[in-house]
Amino acid sequence: MILCEEDFTSHNMSKLVKGAVVPRPIAWVSTVDGKGIRNLAPFSFFTVASMEPITLCISIGGSDKEKDTLRNIRETEQFVINVVSESLANQMHESSKSYDHEVNEFEKSGTTASDSVIVTAPRVAEAPVTFECELDQVIEVGSSHLILGKVVCYHIKDGLIMGNDKIDPHKLAPVGRMAGDYSYIQNFYSLPNEDLPK
User: Fold this and answer.
1) Within 10 Å of residue 36's Cβ, how many Cβ atoms?
2) CB neighbours (10 Å) of residue 102?
3) How high is the mean pLDDT in each 10-residue block of the chain (198 residues)?
4) The CATH number of the domain where 146 resides is what?
5) How many domains in the chain?
6) Residues 160/128, Cβ–Cβ less than 8 Å
7) Do 161 and 154 contact (CB within 8 A), yes or no?
8) Any coiled-coil ranges, and where (predicted)?
9) How far apart, in Å, are the Cα atoms of 71 and each of 39, 60, 83, 159, 195?
10) Interatomic CA distance for residues 3 and 141, integer angstroms
């Protein structure tokens, strides 16, 4: 099947794209608004944008109502990206539900809000890795918003570093986002590899 732009309206392109661009890492983003109301929400459109300076990016999809995460980032110009491990997957899922702005998703998900070092947004204390970020820019891309955040502080749990500043992926146990489901990321291999399917 070949789908060109004129064919997109006759297919569910969201499912076709999200089902192919997998597995995606999950940015569990914590923010706070100007009144101190905390927010915690996951986003699977997430990657590294630059290493000089270290910049991470997340994409927040468009909707009729502006998401609390986007509004808080615009207001405070700060946020935290927490890495989701397998042990936190259920809590992450709980925080993905639609709550009123005044609801604290840390409490709803049963996670601990811990003070950050530089930014005002709290960290998820249980997360194996967290990145404190200061907003670099918000770029409108169609109906979505691409958030670029400069990393100003990096938190990593003891025991995750193997040596030479490499993170042990088995201990990190990150969660991958598929189309509608999630995946374990547990098996690793190097290339070239003659055992791969032909």
Assistant:
1) 7
2) 9
3) 95 94 96 95 98 98 86 97 98 95 94 98 98 97 96 97 94 95 93 94
4) 2.30.110.10
5) 1
6) yes
7) no
8) none
9) 11, 11, 21, 35, 48
10) 21
